[in-house]
Amino acid sequence: MIVNVTDADYGRQAQGVTGPLVVVFGTFDDLGSMVLDPVLARVDQKLNGRIPIVVADVAACPKAAAAWGVGENLPVILILRSGVLERVLHGVRSERRLLADIDEVLREQ
Question: What is the pTM of this model?
Answer without folding.
Answer: 0.93
